[in-house]
Every structure is written in C-alpha cells, then in structure tokens.
Amino acid sequence: MENIANLMHGFSVALTTHHILLMFAGVLLGVLVGVLPGLGAPNGVSLLLPLTFSMDPVSAIILLTSLYWGALFGGSTTSILFNIPGEPSSVATTFDGHPMAKQGKATEALAFAFLSAGFGALAGVILITLLSGWVAKFALRFSSPEYFAVYFMTFASFIGLGGASPLKTIVSMGIGFTLAAVGMDSVSGNVRLTYDFDVLLAGVSFLIAVIGLFGIGELLLTMEEGLKFDGVAAKVRIGDVLTTAAKLPRYWVALLRSSLIGIWMGITPGGPTAASFMSYAMAKRSSRHPETFGKGDPEGVIAPETADHAAGSAAMLPMLALGIPGSATAAVMMGGLMIWGLNPGPTLFTDRPDFVWGLIASMYLGNVVAVIVVLATVPLFASILRIPFSIIGPVIVVICFIGAYTAASKEFDIWLALVFGLVGYVFKKLDYPIAPLVLAMVIGDKAEDAFRQSMIFSQGSLRIFWSNPLVATLMTIGLALLFMPLIGGLVRRLRGRGAPRTV
Amino acid sequence: MKSFSITAALAGALALGGISAAQAWQPTKPIEFVVTSGAGGGTDNFARVIQSIVTKHKLIDQPIVVVNKGGGSGAEGYVYGKGGKGDPNRVIFGTNNAYLLPYVAKLGYKFSDLTPVAALALDEFLLWVNGSAPYADAKSYLDAVKAKPLGFKMGGSQSKDTDQTLTSMIQEAAGVKWIYVPFQGGSAAAVQLAGGHIDSNVNNPNENIGQWKAGQVKPLCVFSPVRLAKSDPVFEGKGWGDIPTCKEAGLPLETFQMPRTVWLPAEVPADAVAFYADLLEKVSKTPEWQEFVTRTAQTSRFMKGKELADFVAKDDTASRKVFESEGWVVK
Predict the structure, then answer these.
(1) Which of A204, A339, A458 to mutate to test the interface with B (most CBs of B within 10 A)?
(2) B107, B36 in Cβ contact below 8 A?
(3) B1 vs A254: CA distance, rounded Å
(4) Do B250 and B271 belong together in one domain?
(5) Same domain, B39 and B140
(6) Which of A369, A385, A396 is nearest to A29 (CA)?
(7) Among A103-117, A173-187, A342-356, A483-497, which is the least confidently predicted range?
(8) What is the ipTM score, two decimals?
(9) What is the mean pLDDT of residues A128-152?
(10) Residue B71 DSSP label
(11) Which of A181, A169, A233, A257 minimizes the C-alpha distance to A389?
C-alpha cells in the first residue's frame, strides 16, 4: 500500500537523534504546560512558535505537536489529583479520576489515564495513516447542518445521564449556553450580553470557568469537610504502574468504543472536548453497573482519556488536508504552517510528502515518547498527594489564580474564577450537575452558529436537517440518543426501580 | 593639539546629538505586539512575520512579545490599545477593522483612541466559485445570479465585515442578490465552497490557495485596479497574474482591498510613531517580507503619514456608504 511506503519514508525523516531530542523536549514542556491550569496547549504552542521560525518545518512541527501531546497528558494529571482540569478536554476525566485519587488509588488512575490515552492517540494516527485520502473527501461533505447534527448528538448523549433531576440538568445547561453567548456573535456581527463592559467583549473564557467550578469549588468543599484528603494514605509503588498496565486489556471494549468515538469527533468538527464527554456518556450508558460511575470506576477514566487523545490526533487530518483546525491548538499550528511557507490543503500531501509523512511518523513516535515520559512521572505526581492538605491546599489556590490570570493576562479573569468557584460550591451543595454547564460552554456557541447558518441556508426551514442521507442519519441517531434514556427511565420507574444518580 | 581634541570632542558630541535628535525615541523595555485576531488568523501571521523579521535582522534590541486579543472581531485588541494611552511600547496590528468596527458594533473604543503608524500591504479579494461550476468568467456567473435573485449562496468570514461589505458592493454594482452565509473565518468559507455547499466566496488569495491548487475552487476575477503580480502556476498552468481584474471582466466595481495596518495608542510621542514607521519601512524592504507577500499573493505597499491618512479616509467613506445603506450603523 502506498500510504505504508510513505509512512516508512516518514519514519526515515522523523527518526533522527535531533528529532527524538526535540520530542522529549516538547513532551516535557507540554506536560508542564498541561499541568498548570490556564496555560494550556494553545498558549504553550503560541509561546513556542517564535522559536520555530528559524527551524525547518519538519523539526518545528515535531516540536509543537510533541508539546501538544505532552499537554494533553499533563492536563489529565491535575484532573485526577486535584479535580482541576489542566485542559478543557480533561474535564470528563475528573468525574471518576478524582474519586479514585481520593480513595488512595491515584497511581492506578494516572496509569490507566496515560495508557488508555496512548492507545487512543495511536488509534487516531493509524486512521490518519490508512484513510487520509478518504477522510479528507468525507469531511468535505460536512456543512453547517451536519455540524449542528454532530453537536446535537453530543448533547443528546449527555442529556438524561444525570438521572436524579432532568430539570437541574437543563438549568445547568442553560447557564452554560448563556455564558457561551457572551461577546461577539459571528452570525449577526453584534455584541451580546456584555452590558458595555469591555472585559466581556472576548466572552467568558471556558478555562476560567473550569478553574473556578472545579478547582476552587472543590477546595471549598474539602475545607468544609475538615481538610481531609484520603489520598494522603496512598502508598506509591512503581510496581503499581505495571500491574495497572496488565489490567488494561480487560477494558478492551471501552478502549475500542472510545477510540471510535474519538476518531469520529476528531475528523468531524466535534473536537477532543466533546469527544471525551460523549465517550464518558456512552461508557456509562452501556455499563452493566452505571451506579459506580462518578465514584471511581476505572472505565470512567479510560473512556474519556482514550477518546480525548484519539480525537486530538485525528484532528490533525482535517487541519492538514482541508485547512480546518479541529481544535484551538491546531489553529495555532496552522498559523505556524503558513509562516513556514506551507499551505494546508488537499495538495499538501502530494506537494510536501516529507513534511506530512514526517509529521505522521512523529505522531507515532511522539506518543510513545509521551507515554514513557508521563508514566515515569506517575510516582512523582502521586506522591504530591502525600503532602498534608494544609500545605498543598494554599498552593493549589495560588496555582489556580495564576492560571486564571495567564489564560489571557486579564485581571478581571481572577475575579471571575473566584465567582465561578462559589458557583461550583453552591452547585455541589444543591446537587446541580456541573458537567452539562461545561459542555454547553464548550460547544454551545458552535452549535448555535451551526444552527443559525443552517437556517440561513434553508431560509428558515427545519427540513434541512433531513435534506440528505448523511445529516438525516446523524440527526436520527441524535434523537434516538435523546429519547432512549427517557423511555428507559420511564420503564424503570414503572417497574419501581428508579435509581437516582448524578454525574 | 588640545584645541583640536576639544573640537573633535565637540564634533563627536554634535554628531551624537544629531543622531539622538533623529532617533529621539528608542524602546527601553520589551515591546508588546497586540494582535487583533486569534492565533492563526491573517492578522496573526502578519504580526508574527514582522516579529520574526525584526528578530532575525536585530532591528531593535528589545524583545518582542506577541499577545493575541481577537475577541469581538478584534475589538478586544483595540480596547486594550486604548488602555495603553500614551504607552509607545504597545503596538497594535490589524486591518481596516480598526476604523470600521466602531460603526457596526457598540464597542469600548473609538478610532480616535488609536494613532496611525503604517500600513505594509494590501490584501486582495477575488470572486471564487466551485471548481466544477459551469461558469468560465465573472460575467456568466453574475448573469446566472441575476436571473435568480436569492437563489445563490455567498459565503464569507463573519458578519458586517469585509466579506459582507464587498458582497453588498457587488450586489449594488451588478444588480444581483445573494443569500449571504457568515462563517467563522475565511478557511471555513473556503472549505464550504470546495464542498459545494455555497456557490461563491470572496476570499483573500491565501485563504483559498490550498483549494485552488487541488482544483476544488476557481477564481473568476480580482477586485484590484491592476492584475496581481505574476506567480508560479497554481492550477492547470494558471497563476495569480492570469486572473482578470473584475473591471476587465465587465463588473463595474474596480477596487476592494484590505490594508494590513499598524497602530499605537493615542497620545504617544511623535518620535515614537516615527521610530516604528521607520522600523516597519525597513521590514517592508527585507527579502523575507517580499517573500511573505508574494507567497500570500498580497500587494506590498508601504504607507505612512499623509498617504496612509488619505487611504483611510477614502476607505472609510466607501465602507460607511455600504454600512448606511444596509442599515448596519449602530447609534
């Protein structure tokens, strides 16, 4: 097969000492960037971008993508240890990862997260290797109605998960949609919900919301519970990493399903964050013991992590082949491509095979390097939990607020993070789910744009969502996902076995 | 002997004085490049290429920090610039949105909050259709659109921005009417055209080149008084220089170009403005800059002082006319 031959050529480009060193450097920097909330992969990549101007494009993209992989891994670390997602896409990892850490199983949670993430990333790269041409053509069939259908599927798979109170889920989602609407509206060109405050022009940053809702909210709760942190008792043994690795194949169904979801969301415009949420929802729905989700089920870590990384690497394909960045980080890298003199587009694969296949080969190597590096850091990170909470707590507060500031260098964001912290605390106290709010904030405005563009396309007719087989299939799956749990819940209630649960 | 050395010293001092009079202002701390678009956007590339050239040729000895403030279609960056009143270390990069945005949206800054420094290039606009569309030239496409008002879709970047303004101007000039669909950016509009979901767009060369190379889209005409500079063939032997101007193609709308502009906050010292204008003029003469404008098929044109002011005034009048007739102006 031609692609395999190209890939081998790519390996010959990527496999030099210089490039391997760049990968290590990139991954290490990335882990650091990912661990610090607020800094994030897009910021990390744009900080490093000027350095790459004097490099040749292959080395430059290897450095930047390695940083991206590292950041994706690093983001999961703080999700699990402190309930603070370092990256938007690792929000779903907190749901079960943090409970595991609290139960003293931090090593296991981290190892599961990293290994399944590595698996997902490799699945994504294999897809790029084998199906690049086909995917590039397929992605061209997507227009606004199809985009909306994909977002709709994500929301639909998440609604009804809450179980306890659908009304509370809707309230939470509504707040998320409202926050997503703040700022410039690209469809009408008008400014919305800023009340003439200049600081709100750019909208409410999702990173700030996450730092507040999760990080600070969680700290407030821990303080209320008397500064107790069970992780303190956890023993850290390197052997635990290996035993966890041995347990991973047991979850092969979750790994495969999550990889597929991740790849799908990576090549369609869903992106890594939506992928991890959807994968988590699907894992919980198909589980035989859904009640353990949210309380430290390893599958609740494996599912979002696999999908997150599968989507992250699969999203490189639309970027290269179409020039559509699948994530915020991809957007920054695309800017880099243009400065290095490359035009992303369908012909990049034939014009610059060295670059494209060198990059693809480096994605295999970079992810292997990343898994090795982060697994080696597990004992280090896990032992942070052994530090008494009265010391680590204030440190986390400081890191959260520094993170809130660095996200966009705005003082206002620090106050906003504090407000979100209080909201997060109140939400937990009143048993409102936070996840729907976060999901609505991430893809709410994109879904809205896609819907309104569709309405402009059709001049106001909803029939556009069933106007071709592709969009009709997506919408029907979405509707099925939406109504299945409602019907299922009704059946359960009729049988008198309604088990309330909250994500 | 003694008197000679005093004379020499005086002459030296005078010479130094002369230099410092011409170069009275020098950056003394790190310079901030404020980009009024997100990372990866056209303005972002513009600022980062200048950053890389200044760094490479060591044109200033202070480090440059690039910050992206692209919220509110770039308004975030200009508001940030306004906040730096009197601070000559805050350089703002943008387009004509600097003076056009305040018309169409209620934002926290006015054009008078900025000091013009220079413009380095004009980005061109072309009329593009899908590669397999049956139209060989602009005239046949516009005739088809004319025959079926609101039967064709024009896609573009954002709303009430350059793409929609140009669309409105073509509608006025050719007596046609499209359904305008706003997307998040030029790259989305390019892919939507390649996929055949919209009938045309008015993208900049750089936004559509990937799709043109693959034959998925084709250019019909360019909104420029003269043809673009000759280039290597892009697709089927045709390069940028082979595209007819829209006037040649029979469309009575000659020019629509977007300046790539640089600004300082209000109330900065005049010699700081001169310093940056001088710096950017040096940048515009480097081979790296020429290579960048050629590759992105922009027209290199350095403007400062009165020339820039005249350009802005002309562009402002023409655009405001469209805004008023479309009812986009906010009170």
Answers:
(1) A339
(2) no
(3) 93
(4) no
(5) no
(6) A369
(7) A483-497
(8) 0.88
(9) 89
(10) T
(11) A233
Per-residue confidence band for B13, with pLDDT thresholds at 50, 70 and 90: very low
Contact B39 A459 (CB under 8 A): no
Residue A373 tokens read as 């590096």
User: Would residue B240 count as lying in a domain?
Assistant: yes
Domain termination site, one of B224, B240, B255:
B255
Interface probe for B, chosen from A186, A340, A406 (most Cβ of B below 10 Å), is A186
pLDDT of residue A32: 87
**Same domain for B135 and B214:** yes
Q: Which residues of A touch B56 (CB under 8 A)?
A: 53-54
CA distance B311 to B40: 27
A16 phi and psi angles, rounded to 5 deg? -120, 160
Residues B68 and B156 in one domain: no
Same domain assignment for residues B153 and B187:
yes
Average pLDDT value for chain A: 87
Is residue B8 assigned to a domain? no
CATH number at residue B109: 3.40.190.150
Give B152 to chain A, closest Cα distance, Å: 10
- C-alpha–C-alpha distance, residues A320 and A337, integer Å: 9
Cβ pair B106:A191 closer than 8 A: yes
Q: Which two tokens stand for residue A434?
A: 């936070």
**What's this model's pTM, rounded to 2 decimal places?**
0.90
Residue of B39, B104, B184 lying closest to A335 (CB–CB): B39
B165 falls within a domain: yes
pLDDT number for residue B141: 97
pLDDT for the residue A231: 52
Q: Do A191 and B216 touch (CB under 8 A)?
A: no
Half-sphere exposure of B5 (CA within 13 A, CB side): 2
Q: Which among A271, A275, A285, A80 has a CA at the least distance from the CA of A162? A: A285
Task: Please tell me whether residues B95 and B65 are part of one structural domain.
Answer: yes
Q: Do A347 and B188 touch (CB under 8 A)?
A: no
Instruction: Flag whether B9 is in a domain.
Output: no
Per the structure, the complete domain to which residue B98 belongs is given by 26-121+259-326
Give the pLDDT band (50/70/90) at residue B9. Answer: very low
CB atoms within 10 A of CB B138: 26
What CATH number has the domain bearing residue B157? 3.40.190.10
What is the DSSP annotation of B224-279? Answer: SSSPPPP-S--BTTB-GGGSPBTTTTT-S----EEEEEEEEETT--HHHHHHHHHH
In DSSP notation, A318-330 reads: HHHHHS--SSHHH
Residue where one domain finishes, among candidates B255, B275, B300: B255
Query: B94 CB contacts (<8 Å, ≥6 apart)?
Result: B36, B43, B74, B77, B78, B261, B262, B263
Asked whether residue B138 falls in the same domain as residue B229, the answer is yes
Q: Look at residue B118 in the predicted model and tell me its pLDDT.
A: 97
Which whole number is the average pLDDT over B263-283? 96
* Least CB–CB distance from A339: residue in B49, B76, B106: B49
B87 and B170 together in one domain: no
Instruction: List all residues of chain A from 251 to 280 with a beta carbon under 8 Å from chain B.
Output: none
Least confident of A371-385, A446-460, B167-181: A371-385
Find the radius of gyration of the CA atoms of chain B.
22
Query: Residue B145 pLDDT > 90, yes or no?
Result: yes
What pLDDT, on the 0 to 100 scale, is given for residue B127?
A: 97
Kindly list the domain boundaries of chain A, sorted by start residue. Answer: 2-166+182-195+231-406+443-494
Contact yes or no for B72 and A459 at CB 8 A: no
Instruction: Give dist(CA B258, CA B260) in Å, integer.
Output: 7
Residue B24 in this model has a pLDDT that exceeds 50: yes
Total number of domains constituting chain B:
2
Tell me what pLDDT residue A311 has: 93
Residues of B in contact with A324 (CB under 8 A): 187-188, 191
Nearest CB to A46 within list B68, B108, B197: B68
If we measure between CA atoms, which residue out of A49, A128, A123 comes closest to residue A320? A128
